[in-house]
Design a protein that fits this description.
Elements (H helix, E strand, L loop, with lengths): L5 H8 L4 H13 L6 H11 L3 H8 L8 H13 L3
Amino acid sequence: MELMNIARVRWACRRGMLELDVLFQPFVDNVYQDLSDEDKVLFIRLLECEDPELFAWFMGHEVCPDPELARMVVQVRGRAAP
């Protein structure tokens, strides 16, 4: 996925779970453009994970085993809402 193609990133944020949509959509709308290219790549990697994993990480039921992705989870949770 292209880092600068915001439409594709927004589309990838559309998940099968409303709880994830509520986190990802505001993050993309309000924060994604200001991320470094490295963090954009990391966010896209996060979007490639399965919904049940993402749900568990974002709801705090499990800790993401990948430290880089875990950092992005914290960043999204902390900055998704305006």
